[in-house]
Amino acid sequence: MRLMLVHPSALMYSEIFLRLEPLGLERVAGAALAAGHEVHALDLQVSSRRDLDRDLLQFRPEAVGISLNYLANIPEAIDISHAIKHVLPGCFVFFGGHSVSFIASHVLDQARGAVDAVLRGEGETSIVPLLTAIRDGGIGGVPGIVTADGFGPGPRLMEAIDAPRPARHLMRNRRRYFIGELDPCASIEFTRGCPWDCSFCSAWTFYGRSYRKASPEAAADELASIAEPNVFIVDDVAFIKAEHGDAIAAAVEKRGIRKRYYLETRSDVLLRNTDVFERWAGLGLKYMFLGMEALDADGLELYRKRVSQDQNIQALEAARKLGIMVAINLIVDPAWDTDQFRMVREFALSVPEIVHLTVLTPYPGTEIWHTEARRLTTRDYRLFDIQHAVVPTTLPLGQFYAELVRTQAVINRKHLGVAAVTGAARVLARNLAHGQTNFARMLWRFNRVYNPSRQLADHNRPVRYELPLPVHSTGGSGQQPLFLHTRAPAHARQAGTAPSG
Ligand code: B12
Ligand code: SF4
Fold first, then answer.
1. For the ranges 24-28, 305-309, 484-488, which has the lowest average pLDDT?
2. 493 within domain boundaries
3. Whole-prediction pTM
């Protein structure tokens, strides 16, 4: 069958810092290719709508799948579905991905017939059964399927994540993928899932708190197959298990692979497995996101981060000793007043690290979607990008954005200052010499995009598609009802029970 897979456009406020390959979509493509289907992929982060229109007419897909990891992309995906049905009325259009999995039937209703199905959960296990069912019938029996007729069987977790390999070769314009100065940059997955249970995050609910590891040989083979000199490791929390991180490092050393890496991890994991991070620093690990989330004990408690502020500070020291640059993430609570923003500015200026701010956002799939007592002030999908306030702010909204942007600008100026003396100018020149302009554009675009009036104006756009209303609970019925995948393989359940944080 001719299958076309599409990733929507980049999110405006994060595109400044990064644009990364759609790894999940590439893995779904890999599964379909392995079963003998003809697959075409298009990423609107790096291609235009005109490319999409042209490809639809030339490739004439029998099925089109659109990836929806981010809520903010849902309106665009619904519009694209209408356009597809207009030119190819017989084409089967379906959605899949992280965010849409939690609100599948709502989105189907909103699409008013333009979307035939949503595949919830991991796409590798359901794509081939879906394509077979489109041809032979029996769509209602596909794992994870939701159609206008209702829910089919639950989504199925893969036993192991070694295969299928992401079909990277299908993506055009790969040189446009980057994160910060790692330009161009590919992505890879060493583990899947997270055993912790932070209240604002849906990574753990999606995978039912399971945790799976790629085999070290498969991980190193895949890394060796990547052409880009830079790699983002997409794991929710990298190197939770020291022996796994060490085993991949050994396989990478054996093959003599040399790249520069960016990853995400937790402070307690960095402190517990410092040796592993040191070994990876030797292999080229340059940057890491550290989700500190809050500067005070109350905030850490509220987000159920299970890390103390002392551990966070020690982790920063550990990373500095290893020469790894940290991007600290802090969650901005819409309840903040000017004092709290000032404190964050002071903190950001007092540490050499990059500080990244995201606004506390209850979204489907998270615990706070059900427990947050504050009412949503908007249900416009496009504002659920954790750069906008979607619950009431203590400051008037305009002032909240003014404080937010002022804080971000102070932080950004600091980096440009630090960057100039620490050699970013050299990096910039090197990238430009190789025709890589993503990092340079990022430095110049900040002021245009991060602008309080623009953020405020985003709230006044006409709204065509809205999120469903949350179903409130006190959280008393345990965590199981939040899980999307409910049956983890036995080995994964074992690994997932022991976060020592
Ligand atoms: C790695 C990651 C990042 C990285 C890289 C992002 C990137 N573009 O690659 C970084 C740290 C930079 C990042 C940034 C952001 N992220 Co992020 N990120 C993740 C994370 C941890 C893993 C994503 C991943 O690559 N997984 C591995 C691949 C293989 O899995 P996958 O993409 O989910 O695909 C599988 C399924 O979803 C499904 N699938 C996917 N597409 C399709 C399509 C079809 C047709 C089908 C059938 C199935 C299918 O099958 C795939 C294979 O199993 C997820 C949490 C999670 N565990 O999912 C959050 C997550 C997706 N991010 C989130 C957010 C909010 C953001 C930011 C907006 C935060 C910010 N403002 O800074 C930015 C936006 C960046 C951007 N535009 O890409 C939220 C999404 C929230 C929401 N509901 O909208 C998540 C869920 C985390 C959370 N907080 O709960 N992110
Ligand atoms: S540790 Fe990170 S990925 Fe895991 S639940 Fe918390 S925020 Fe989500």
1. 484-488
2. no
3. 0.94
